[in-house]
Amino acid sequence: MFYLLIFLLGIAIGSFLNVLIDRLPQEETIMGRSHCDHCEKELEWNDLFPIFSYIYLKGKCRRCKKRLSFFYPMVELITGAMFVGVLIFSSNNLRGSPIAMLKYGGSISDSLLSIHTNFLYVLALLGIVSCAIVIFFADFKYQIIPDSIQVALFSFSFLFLITQGITPQIFLDHVLASFITMLPILLLFLFTKGKGMGFGDVKLAFTMGFLLGIVGGLAAVYIGFIAGAVIGIILILLKRKKFKSKIAFGPFLIIGFLFALFFQAQLDQIIRSFYSY
């Protein structure tokens, strides 16, 4: 029941993320009611229930009857699923239970601190995931990564590091990791004069390195390159893209970023086994 509530919260947040995905790249205000992409009529209150309204209306606008983008329910479903995934991930990585701390001699202040830290940990992860979803779909649809989302992602990443007990030395290490992770993307951006890589990708790589560290950041970039190459080859073979066609790279960086974030232990094992030979 708890995870169902988290899923419902996630799809509700996903509905708001759809607004950010469509409006931020076009520099529109995020205030105001949602409207149809075709007739631009404001949606009724009963058209705004995430996923359910889309199913009830059979994916069409109530007024003009034109088909609505399938991206809307997709973003909502992905957000709901990711929120549940974050809670499951967090339950395996959070610090000691506040109740257990009291039971085994911990003070009330320690217990309250644990609650506060755990809450911020989960909040940071949910914020990171939400920003990642916006970046993925905004870049996929418009080939733009809005600066406001970049700032939000960096802020949530910094909050996450705070919950891990960041010190001045650790902070400097992560800043160094930011520049090292950003370097290959920056060089590619300069070499192609912005045609092979956008500067938004450079800024995204900076934040990835800041959160994940040198190893995790470079691994995320590597995974992004592999994913981009595989998908690019498939699209060329299917004749959906030409060899010189421009493909948004942000979504692939996000794939690598989330993989390195949530499967860091497994990634470390793979890297260690690789270098042990």
From TrEMBL:
<feature type="domain" description="Prepilin peptidase A24 N-terminal">
    <location>
        <begin position="8"/>
        <end position="87"/>
    </location>
</feature>
<dbReference type="Pfam" id="PF01478">
    <property type="entry name" value="Peptidase_A24"/>
</dbReference>
<feature type="domain" description="Prepilin type IV endopeptidase peptidase">
    <location>
        <begin position="128"/>
        <end position="233"/>
    </location>
</feature>
<dbReference type="InterPro" id="IPR000045">
    <property type="entry name" value="Prepilin_IV_endopep_pep"/>
</dbReference>
<dbReference type="Pfam" id="PF06750">
    <property type="entry name" value="A24_N_bact"/>
</dbReference>
<feature type="transmembrane region" description="Helical">
    <location>
        <begin position="70"/>
        <end position="89"/>
    </location>
</feature>
<dbReference type="GO" id="GO:0005886">
    <property type="term" value="C:plasma membrane"/>
</dbReference>
<feature type="transmembrane region" description="Helical">
    <location>
        <begin position="119"/>
        <end position="137"/>
    </location>
</feature>
<feature type="transmembrane region" description="Helical">
    <location>
        <begin position="6"/>
        <end position="24"/>
    </location>
</feature>
<dbReference type="InterPro" id="IPR050882">
    <property type="entry name" value="Prepilin_peptidase/N-MTase"/>
</dbReference>
<keyword id="KW-1133">Transmembrane helix</keyword>
<comment type="similarity">
    <text>Belongs to the peptidase A24 family.</text>
</comment>
<feature type="transmembrane region" description="Helical">
    <location>
        <begin position="149"/>
        <end position="166"/>
    </location>
</feature>
<keyword id="KW-0812">Transmembrane</keyword>
<dbReference type="GO" id="GO:0006465">
    <property type="term" value="P:signal peptide processing"/>
</dbReference>
<feature type="transmembrane region" description="Helical">
    <location>
        <begin position="204"/>
        <end position="237"/>
    </location>
</feature>
<keyword id="KW-0472">Membrane</keyword>
<dbReference type="GO" id="GO:0004190">
    <property type="term" value="F:aspartic-type endopeptidase activity"/>
</dbReference>
<feature type="transmembrane region" description="Helical">
    <location>
        <begin position="172"/>
        <end position="192"/>
    </location>
</feature>
<feature type="transmembrane region" description="Helical">
    <location>
        <begin position="249"/>
        <end position="267"/>
    </location>
</feature>
<protein>
    <recommendedName>
        <fullName>Prepilin peptidase</fullName>
    </recommendedName>
</protein>
<keyword id="KW-1003">Cell membrane</keyword>
<dbReference type="InterPro" id="IPR010627">
    <property type="entry name" value="Prepilin_pept_A24_N"/>
</dbReference>
